[in-house]
Structure formats: C-alpha cells, structure tokens
Amino acid sequence: MRRLSHRLFLAASLLIGPLLSLGSLWLAPASGAGSHVVVATYEGVINPVAAEYLHDALAFAESSHAQALIVKLDTPGGLDTSMRLIIKDMTNAPIPVAVYVAPSGGRAASAGVFITMAAHVAAMAPGTNIGAAHPVAMGGGEMDKTMQEKVENDSVAYIKSIAEQRGRNVKWAEDAVRKSVSATEKEALDLKIIDVVVEDIPALLAKLDGRKVTLANGSVTLQTQGVETRSFPMGWRLEALKAISDPNIAMLLMTIGTIGILAELYNPGAILPGIVGAISLILAFYSLQSLPINYAGVLLIILGIVFFVLEIKVTSYGLLTLGGIAAMTLGGLLLVKTDAPFMQVSLSFLLPTVVTAAAIMAAMTWMAVKAGRRKPVTGKESMIGQIATVRTDVTPRGEVLLHGELWEAVSDRPIKRGEEAEVTSIDGLTLTVAPRHK
C-alpha cells in the first residue's frame, strides 16, 4: 500500500506540475504585448536632481515590466556630469528609452541635445527646437584657448559616438557643439537628428508600434498601439531639491541663513533666528553642491552681511552698509562659475534681495540704537533721575523716601524736609541727590 500510494503521488506530481506551468504561462501576459509604458516628465536644468529622477524612473519602468520609458523633456541644458550619468543609464537600459521634446515651445538645448540623441527613439513635438550644444565655461570667466579646445574636442567626440551608435546625423551633431547650430522639429526630422515628430504621447505610441529597437542585451520589437501609460511623477523630496537647486534660491537661502546665525550670535537666546538660519544654511549648502560654485562669491556674500551686522556696533555713518551692499551684489554676480545665463543669479532677483537684506539690517540697527538710549528699568541705574521725598533735612546728610524705602542721602546743597529731590548717582546704599527744580 505504501509503494502504491507513493507511486500515485509521483504520478500526480508529474501530471499536475506541467499543468500548473502551462496555466501560469497562459495567465501571464506575452512579453511586449499588452503591457504598459512609463512616462517621466522633466522640465528645467539638467542637474543631480534630474539625474536621480530619471534613474528612478528607469528603475520603476524596469521593475514594473514596462515595454518602454518615455522621457518628456524640456531643458535649456545643464551640468556635464549629470548629463553623462543620464546617458549612461539610458545606454545600459534593459528596456527602450524614448526622449520626447515637448510641449510646444519647449527645447532640448546644450546637454538636452546629447540626451535626446542618446535615446533609442528621439521625438519632438511641433513648435520645439534642438541644438546649441557648445560647452560653456564652468570655471568662472572665459576659458583660455587651449582649455576651450580640449573641452570642445571632448564634447565633439562624445556626441559623435552617440550619434554613430544611434544612427543619427554625425555631421550635424558635431556642428551643434562646434558652431552651436540649432534646428526646428521639421529640420531635425529631415536631417535625421530625430526619428519622429508627433503631437502628443498617444501619437508617439502609435508611431513606436512595430519599431525594432536595439538594446545592450539584444533587440526588441515594440507593440505600443493603444497600451496603457503610467506617469512617474517626481516625488516631493526631489521637487523640493529641484526648487532649491535654482541659483537664485541658493542666494536667498544663504542670505537668510547668514542673517539668522549672526542675529542669534548677537542676541543669544532668541532661538528662532538661529533655527531658521541653520536650516537655511544647510539647504543652501545642498543647493550650492549641485552648482559650479565660485567660493569667492560665497565669501563676499558672507562679508557683506557681516558689514551689515557691524553697522549695529560701529558708528560708520553708513559706510559699512554701503560696503555690505557692494559686497553682496558682487558676491551674487560671482556666485556661480558659468557663462550659461540660466545657471547664474538673476540681477533682477539679486538687487531686491540685497536691498531687502540691507533694510532688515537697518531696522535692526535702529532698534539697537533705540534700545541703547532707553533708560534702564532695573538695577541701580534705573534709580538715576528718580524723584525722592525728603524725610529729614539733608544738610548735607539726611534720609529720603524712594519707592517705599528709606535711603541715606547726601547733597551739596541743603534740602528741607518734605521737599522733593532728584537722584543723581548712587554709591552703595547712599544716594546723591539734588533739589528738584520745578
């Protein structure tokens, strides 16, 4: 019986196992058919936040078994290091990546050109443009001729290798770097810079249907007609980091942080300025690490705020305030080491920030001067100028009544009992008084 039952168990296992496998294959969707496409939207400067977001989007698309990742892009350019990280992820992606320059009025400039051309499929919306990929100085001021040639040749070699790999127009790619040429979406399609021009994402999916794409691990044929699209939104953390990565916000955070810390040092125990200042400085440091920073600009900004604070303690007749305004303005202009205007502190933002900081410090100076002139309300100093009632004749010694207390008093002029006397000084428990002039 044991042998029979064992044989029956083996037979059942051999029969049920294949049936379960066939059932799982029947239930599972066919690879590339009926699955979804992930759409990631990025608008702004290419920086570490952009690199992290697109890396996360690609990881999500891969883990959710998406057919492809579509990157909806609108960028003026950005940092070379972040751009290369994005391209490295795209090149080694296990699924196709399509870059779609949109919406109408958008662009893929500078670093955006490299990213678009590195995509497995490059698409543009009507009314967009691509180009102007000439490298700009990231070291403050103009690059010398030798360094400019090195950077330019490196960028040319990189974009030519990308164009050759994707079968795109190598000559135009080189001109985009050397001559900063640009193209509209129609010109880009005619020049074989991109693959398609489409109105929207559904139209792009229709164009991608049946297209064969070569990946690092082989080829795949897309079946995207009518498939579901899943958006991959940028999380609140990356949204916040993207916002503070703006050079104007970095300038503002540094100003607030420095004022807060200095206000706490000059007024220990205020607490709130110290908290706000510390948080602002930490956020400013994150923002600065994502930008090509000139630390001479940072020091000038801090020096300007120190000048404002010293105006409270030192009588400079406004010279320290003027010096602070000049130092902060120069510091803001020198803060970011790049010729790219979209990565520099805007002068229209810088001047109001400096003027506001100067106004705040002027208000603090006025309050400090006002507090210094205010009569003391506690301690011995608060008794100076008070009016006492003479209890016994002061000739030159006697007693006076002040605040309900009897004090020994002296005076160089006689004062009769019942008259009022003004306290002029105090020595221990003896008051020096003078007759009150009515």
Question: What is the CATH topology of the largest domain?
Answer: 2-enoyl-CoA Hydratase, Chain A, domain 1
Helix/strand structural class: alpha/beta
In the CATH hierarchy, what is the class of the largest domain?
Alpha Beta
Strand content: 15-25%
- Low-pLDDT sequence parts: 1-34
Could you estimate the helical fraction of the residues in percent? Answer: 40-55%
In total, how many domains does the architecture comprise? 3
Distance between the termini: 129 Å
Q: Rounded to an integer, what's the Rg over CA atoms? A: 37 Å
Residue-averaged pLDDT = 83
Q: What is the CATH architecture annotation of the largest domain?
A: Alpha-Beta Complex
Main sheet characteristics: 6 strands, parallel
Ordered list of secondary-structure elements with their pairings:
Layout lengths: L1 H26 L9 E7 L4 H16 L5 E6 L5 H12 L5 E5 L5 E3 L1 H8 L2 E4 L4 E3 L13 H22 L3 H9 L3 E3 H6 L5 E2 L3 H8 L3 E4 L2 E4 L7 E3 L4 H9 L2 H20 L5 H18 L5 H19 L5 H16 L12 H27 L13 E4 L6 E6 L2 E6 L9 E8 L2 E6 L3
Parallel strand pairs: 1-2, 1-11, 2-3, 3-5, 4-6, 5-8, 14-16
Antiparallel strand pairs: 6-7, 9-10, 12-13, 12-15, 13-14, 15-16
Helix pairs in contact: 2-3, 3-4, 5-6, 10-11, 10-12, 10-14, 12-13, 12-14, 13-14
